[in-house]
Amino acid sequence: MRAMAGRIVDRVPLQFRVLYRQFLLRVVDLEALSMQADVTRLLGQFAGVLILISTLQTLGFLWMVGPKQPAWALFNFAMAKLLSFIAGTMLIVGLVTVISWDAVFPDRRDAMVLGPLPVKPGTILAAKLAASGALLGIAVVTLNFAIGIVLPIVMGGSFVGILRGLFAWWFTMVAATVFLYGAVLAAQGWTALLLPRRLFLQLSAALQLAAFALFLTQWIFQPGFVNLAVLGQYAGRWPACWFLCLELQIEGKLPPELSWVAHRAWIAAGISTLAAASSLLLCYLRTMKKMVEEPDLLPGAGRPRWPMRWGDALATAIVQFSVRSLARSKQHRVIYAFFLAITFTIAVSTVKDIVTGGWVRPLTTDFLMPTLVMMCLAVLGLRSVFSLPVSLKANWVLQVTQLRPSQDYLAAARRSMVVMAAGPVWLVAATLSLCFRPWPAVVEHLIALALIGSILIDLSLLNVSKIPFACSYLPGKSNIQYLFWVFAVGFLPVAMEIANWEARSFASARRTAAMLTILSTVALGSWLANRHRARSAVLYFEESEPEVITTLGLSGMVMEETES
Known about the structure:
Layout: H1 2-11, H2 14-26, H3 39-64, H4 71-99, H5 108-114, H6 121-144, H7 147-156, H8 159-194, H9 197-221, H10 231-234, H11 239-251, H12 259-293, H13 313-328, H14 330-357, E1 361-362, H15 365-386, H16 392-400, H17 406-432, E2 436-437, H18 439-460, H19 480-505, H20 509-535, H21 554-563
Parallel strand pairs: 1-2
Helix pairs in contact: 2-6, 3-6, 4-6, 4-8, 4-9, 4-11, 7-8, 8-9, 8-11, 8-12, 9-14, 11-12, 13-14, 13-17, 14-15, 14-17, 15-17, 15-18, 15-19, 17-18, 17-20, 18-20
């Protein structure tokens, strides 16, 4: 088998094989997702998270399926689980596609390295598509590997039914992946074709954030359970329902009156594929030169100056530098867009609850918990991109112009966190809180949220002596798999407990005063600790591994031999 696979691989052109390996290493920016510059470890941890999610959900499905459960109840439960996995697969595919934004399109490195070589643009495009497809394939297979086998076996009945169910499941997942991936590529490609290059680069950040928010909103607001009687009512708004009907059609279980829903899935997948293919071909033929020549960071010449000031000249300069770096740099905005999209989705979910449940609602943990999570995500997301440099020019300019004490620079970095993360989230929470009562509890929650935001900022800046976006980045300090489960298992229960504690404190003025006093003390203590450390801190712009002296432990052996 291995020899046969080797012969098949050898028939693939050498140029394609070499480019495929290189593009697979670059399909996700290693600087953005620091994994010690080891893409295999990155993909392994990414797959590990999805495998665990798939296994847990499959075990839950087997636990809920009883031996004496009626056939109609089993079918409805299986259909709900299928809809859930189709929507989850589309969410993962959408997020991976947006994270690897521009991975299929040529960049300056491709032109400098591959331009002088006799490599056809079609080979480059095919290798980039294959690399992106490999990453999407890992996501789809690892998320569906358990339930994609168990559910067809449980629902198949006969051997032929099991085989048909297996084919229907995996074909549907591939079709949903092709639809979503093609839609994102088509939107990006046709926008790049129709708009001037400068305007497209400016609009790219908004497109990425909108795509993140759209995918998360679709996943959160989709119907949790539908049956065949009401499936047609959701078909117009939820693409996951289209592919659910497609899967049932392939299995032969779709009623004839719902065939139009399955046809919509076929049409959507075909249109997105054609649109993506045409946009990619035109981009490689017409706009490749512009994509290479135009920088990712656009100059702001000809624009009016930003009149708002954030303190003295130094603080204003660093805050404006941080804001513009985040807005212009693709690498930074892709990462931060993920956190902002989750924050935006939580806010939209709260708005939906307000609209459906009434414009005046009691203040409960249903509002306290989401606002705490929003604040944490905004601060954590911005802190995660602060360490990624923008360019060496920013690094050197700030090094040679350091004429003020280090504490002034670190104070300006903290102010950037307030302006770009904690402040906007607090304003969103304050706007949403207008629909909650009683007013004293709302005001107390906003004060507590501001204090929690200050605590989170100071904790995120502990032992940090760098200017945002101006220090070289040392890969290997983060671990996506562990951070994901720490947040899901560690922070969310803590946030829920804090929300419950805050809700209980609203019952009496004494408890409220005690809560605010504790939060104020912690916030003041963390701020004073950072300020005291900043007085003796030394700004560093080049991050390097600490020097470690490894000893062989021979001195002790020599002493023992001498004594003996």
